[in-house]
């Protein structure tokens, strides 16, 4: 009796459960159908603009002293004392070393004595010549004696000139015993000390002086880049930047900008056969001595101005497998379009575009990983968002 009652109850419960499951499945299926289409993904874009742009060429280079003088002795002698402090600034003509000059003083005194003797002989010959000239008028002396007196006077005059030259040489050699600075600048360390023997025009320099204010910066530029730059100027794509076109700005190894600007001095009229580069030289003020010879620097040289340049963020440009540059833009009906572009050069965190993008294009820079060509998107102006955040802040 109990069994007959229990079976209908279980069957009834099972039917209610099955009905509820079917109902729930129907409702869930209806909800998916209503909201199954996802909205277009949002992407951030920047509007491409054509603006005046100064083309600045950044070139590697090294600093070089404005003048370098290796000091060597011009006479032989023993160094008595050094007259400078290593590392100091010296002026042209400042004494640096004093050599033992006793031998040179004696040579000078001997040459001066020979000069006095030659001058005395000249005076005697001059008196004799004058007396013979007077006597010749009364035919008191022969023509031969007169000519001999005239010749003797000329001989003594030549002897005086030779003696004077020996005196000058001895005096110069005596002055050379005091070795002086040929230029002004910063002096280095001395290679010899007091008591050392030096010889005239020896190979080893006693000390080196470098003039560092101003200082040269030797730069190298690719000839191909220089050629394309000249072609762009010839075609009217670039115009010169005016009177300051030769201005040079330096970036130091730590990235800081050197406070003093320089000027471009010359460009070499030859191409290096090994590197294909052209040498340039700039002159930079260095009043504080911050630039030392041999430093690596980067020089920024304004070379032209493009009136309608396209400059876009680098993150909006990608590379194809074949190396070509491409960009995604928001096209008609907010559809993603692909553009093949040509980049001219990197400018900071941006690319200077040669072709492929035009003013007014909406270049996609954010959300690139979730889109593909041909799908609709919801474009958001990143510049407008930044402006709004600044205003709200």
From TrEMBL:
It is a lipid-anchor. Residues 101-173 form a coiled coil. InterPro entries: MdtA-like_b-barrel, MdtA-like_BSH, MdtA-like_C, MdtA-like_HH, RND_pump_MFP. Transmembrane segments: none annotated. Residues 1-19 form the signal peptide. Residues 214-302 form the Multidrug resistance protein MdtA-like beta-barrel domain. Pfam families: Beta-barrel_RND, BSH_RND, HH_MFP_RND, RND-MFP_C. It comes from the Bacteria. Keywords: Coiled coil, Signal. It is found in: Cell inner membrane. SUPFAM superfamilies: HlyD-like secretion proteins. Residues 68-209 form the Multidrug resistance protein MdtA-like barrel-sandwich hybrid domain. Gene3D superfamilies: 2.40.30.170, 2.40.420.20, 2.40.50.100, Helix hairpin bin (1.10.287.470). Residues 309-370 form the Multidrug resistance protein MdtA-like C-terminal permuted SH3 domain. Residues 107-177 form the Multidrug resistance protein MdtA-like alpha-helical hairpin domain. Belongs to the membrane fusion protein (MFP) (TC 8.A.1) family. NCBIfam families: RND_mfp. This is Efflux RND transporter periplasmic adaptor subunit.
């Amino acid at each position: 009796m109990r069994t007959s009652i229990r079976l209908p109850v279980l069957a009834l419960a099972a039917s209610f459960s099955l009905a509820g499951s079917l109902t729930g499945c129907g409702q869930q299926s209806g909800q998916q159908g209503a909201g199954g289409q996802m909205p277009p993904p949002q992407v951030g874009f920047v509007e491409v603009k054509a603006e005046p742009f100064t083309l600045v060429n950044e070139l590697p280079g090294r600093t070089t002293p404005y003048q370098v003088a290796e000091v060597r002795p011009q006479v032989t002698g023993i160094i008595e004392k050094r007259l400078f402090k290593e590392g100091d600034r010296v002026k042209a003509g400042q004494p640096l070393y004093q050599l033992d000059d006793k031998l040179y003083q004696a040579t000078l005194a001997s040459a001066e004595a020979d000069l006095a003797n030659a001058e005395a002989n000249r005076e005697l010959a001059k008196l004799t010549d004058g007396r013979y000239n007077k006597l010749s008028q009364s035919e008191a002396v022969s023509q031969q004696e007169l000519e001999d007196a005239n010749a003797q006077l000329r001989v003594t005059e030549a002897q005086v000139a030779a003696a004077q030259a020996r005196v000058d040489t001895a005096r110069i050699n005596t002055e050379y015993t005091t070795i002086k600075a040929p230029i002004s600048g910063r002096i280095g360390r001395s290679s010899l000390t007091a008591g050392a023997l030096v010889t005239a025009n020896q190979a080893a320099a006693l000390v080196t002086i470098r003039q560092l204010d101003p200082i040269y910066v030797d730069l190298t530029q690719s000839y191909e880049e220089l050629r394309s730059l000249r072609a762009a100027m010839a075609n009217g794509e670039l115009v010169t930047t005016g009177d300051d076109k030769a201005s040079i700005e330096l970036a130091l190894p730590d990235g800081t900008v050197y406070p003093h600007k320089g000027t471009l001095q010359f460009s070499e009229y030859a191409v290096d056969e090994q590197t294909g580069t052209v040498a340039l030289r700039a002159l930079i003020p260095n009043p504080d001595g911050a630039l030392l010879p041999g430093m690596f620097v980067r020089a920024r040289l304004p070379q032209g101005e493009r009136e309608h340049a396209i400059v876009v963020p680098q993150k909006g440009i990608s590379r194809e497998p074949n190396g070509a540059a491409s960009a995604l833009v928001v096209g008609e009906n907010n559809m993603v379009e692909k553009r093949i572009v040509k980049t001219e050069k990197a400018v900071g965190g941006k690319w200077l575009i040669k072709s492929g993008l035009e003013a007014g294009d909406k270049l996609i820079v954010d959300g690139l990983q979730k889109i593909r060509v041909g799908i609709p998107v919801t474009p958001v102006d990143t510049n407008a968002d930044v402006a709004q955040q600044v205003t709200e802040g």
